[in-house]
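User: tokens in, sequence out, please.
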């Protein structure tokens, strides 16, 4: 006959330690950090490029909307209206329009500040496309027709968007 004590076996201490283990060992932590680093290295350039693309597209669309607004303002008031682009400080002003933030200020858009953080890369007229300018004044007559064709290129990072105003019809497009 076997006694009760002889049939009972105590579990191995290593088994008990593995079952009650709380935490991670150095190899698990190292592998986790390594995998996260690889994922970040792959995702960071993609995120950066999409952010630059978004900023350039947003700035180009803002320019298009403000050019269209200036054309409409010229037609409504039956007067010539101008929009002045400056490459030096990456800004433009709309003549005869007031600021959306302060009614005492002129309408000024600084593209190198939030939310756009872009720069005006080139300003070119269709009259002389070989000569980039530091500033362009685009005037719209009382019928909303431009006095010249222009090309405005905005850049964020390595992404560029070009806004083109045709001289004959005054059509505004983003390329």
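Assistant: Sequence out:
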């Amino acid at each position: 006959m076997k006694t009760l004590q002889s049939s009972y076996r105590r579990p191995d201490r290593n088994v008990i330690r593995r079952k009650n283990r709380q935490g991670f060992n150095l190899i698990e932590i190292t592998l986790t950090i390594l995998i996260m680093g690889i994922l970040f290295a792959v995702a960071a350039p993609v995120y950066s490029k999409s952010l630059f693309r978004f900023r350039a597209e947003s700035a180009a669309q803002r320019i298009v909307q403000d050019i269209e607004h200036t054309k409409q303002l010229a037609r409504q008031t039956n007067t010539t209206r101008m929009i002045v682009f400056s490459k030096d400080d990456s800004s433009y002003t709309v003549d005869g329009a007031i600021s959306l933030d302060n009614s005492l200020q002129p309408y000024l858009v600084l593209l190198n500040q939030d939310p756009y953080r872009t720069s005006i890369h080139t300003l070119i007229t269709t009259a002389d496309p070989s000569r980039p300018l530091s500033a362009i004044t685009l005037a719209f007559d009382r019928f909303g027709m431009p006095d010249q064709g222009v090309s405005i290129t905005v850049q964020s990072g390595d992404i560029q968007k070009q806004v083109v105003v045709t001289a004959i019809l005054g059509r505004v497009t983003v390329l």
